[in-house]
Specification:
Elements (H helix, E strand, L loop, with lengths): L9 E5 L3 H17 L3 E6 L8 H26 L7 E6 L3 H9 L4 E5 L13 H9 L4 E4 L12 E5 L6 H14 L3 E6 L11 H28 L5 E6 L3 H9 L4 E5 L13 H9 L4 E4 L10
Parallel strand pairs: 1-2, 1-4, 2-3, 4-5, 6-7, 6-9, 7-8, 9-10
Antiparallel strand pairs: 5-10
């Protein structure tokens, strides 16, 4: 009997906003690079019944129009129909619909904000909820265009915990697909210690930096064996990682981080670094959980 191999799709959330169309463009390119099917999901829900069936019909008609427009864009963006592009209208609340589908997805791609978001610089409610609970990697896109140059590196933040290992592996994979260099950043201090000058501080700094170099070497070594063609640059810093990741992101085509690192605690969905990047990263951000969606408490 022939066994059919089912390839998990890349899912992109669509609401008709420019942010969701930016996400669609990025997702179509990612699906083409990976040879994966692309599934567009447009959600329509309403919480009040006073307007009855009329409101339901209006919302469903709008969702159908938005999905048809997005399908046309996605199919035009993919190279000569090289991937399968499908669409679905869900009547489930958007975060729940996307989180439920994440168990069978390769990746979920979302715009940072949607039609119901009005505050520039802040992440949308759907994006935040999905990033915290999805069981697959989540890409957050803000202002990306396929016409922009994408020659920059992929940047990944590592902290030596098991929670960052899947992010390192996915970052290597993205570099191999894109022909990009990889910048691996590790912050060996959680605070800026450059102003401390006494002898004891110098000794502590030297010891911690040596440990940091070891973290970088060990984090990279296993994945470099699988992707020897990827050019790697290691970057050790003495401060909280967010500021340095944002500086690197200005010239990067992608930033990859684990959802929770060494400072996390049980029950925490996204650590402080991931939360800050979720709001501010100027390039696409890819957030990666441990397999099964669980973080390892260390």
């Amino acid at each position: 009997m022939e066994v059919l191999m089912v390839r998990s799709p890349i899912i992109v959330g669509i609401d008709g906003s420019q942010h969701s169309l930016d996400a669609l463009g990025w997702a179509a390119r990612e699906a083409t690079l990976r040879g994966l099917p692309l599934l567009l999901v447009c959600c329509t829900t309403y919480r009040y019944t006073a307007d009855g069936p009329y409101l339901a019909r209006e919302l469903c008609d709008r969702a159908d129009r938005v999905l048809a427009m997005a399908l046309g864009i996605a199919r035009a963006d993919t190279v000569a129909g090289s991937i399968d592009v499908q669409g679905e209208v869900s009547h489930q609340y958007a975060p729940g619909a996307l989180i439920d589908r994440s168990a069978d997805a390769s990746m979920i791609v979302l715009g940072r904000r949607g039609l119901d978001e009005y505050s520039r610089g802040f992440v949308g409610s759907v994006c935040a909820a999905v990033a915290r609970r999805a069981k697959c990697p989540v890409a957050v896109i803000d202002g990306w265009s396929r016409d922009e140059p994408v020659a920059g590196p992929v940047v990944v933040g590592v902290d030596g915990s098991m929670n960052s290992d899947p992010a390192i592996g996915l970052a290597f994979e993205e570099c191999a697909l894109r022909g990009a260099a990889l910048v691996v950043l590790h912050a060996c201090f959680d605070q800026d210690m450059s102003t401390l000058q006494d002898d004891s501080a110098t000794e502590v700094r030297a010891a911690v930096e040596a440990a940091g170099r070891l973290v970088l070497a060990e984090s990279v070594s296993r994945w470099w064996k699988q992707f020897p063609e990827v050019r790697v640059r290691r970057n050790l810093v003495r401060d909280r990682p967010v500021r340095h990741l944002l500086v690197l992101a200005a010239d990067a085509q992608l930033v990859v981080v684990g959802t929770r690192g060494r400072g996390g605690f049980a029950g925490m969905d996204i650590g402080s670094t991931g939360t800050a990047l979720l709001h501010k990263t100027p390039c696409p951000l890819l957030m990666v959980r441990q397999p099964g969606g669980e973080c390892v408490d260390e």
